[in-house]
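Onboarding guide, step 5: your first structure request.
Type a short instruction followed by the sequence, for example:

Predict the 3D structure of this protein.
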Amino acid sequence: MQSAQFFPSAPKKWILCGGGANNPTLVRLIKQGLKANVCVASEMKWDVDLLEAQGIAFLAVRSLF
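The system replies with structure tokens like these:
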């Protein structure tokens, strides 16, 4: 949630993915903390775990350079 301070403007929607998106308590706390439009990737018919894996792969490749 603290990452929002680094954006040039507030996001219109936050989309949660990865293992934490399957945790209802965590999702509820994030929604409360952000006070913004928040949804889980699966609500948009996206594969929650695939997005997490792709994100980690992207970061791994970026760390090589």
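Each response can be followed by summary notes, for example: The CA atoms of residues 24 and 38 lie 13 Å apart.
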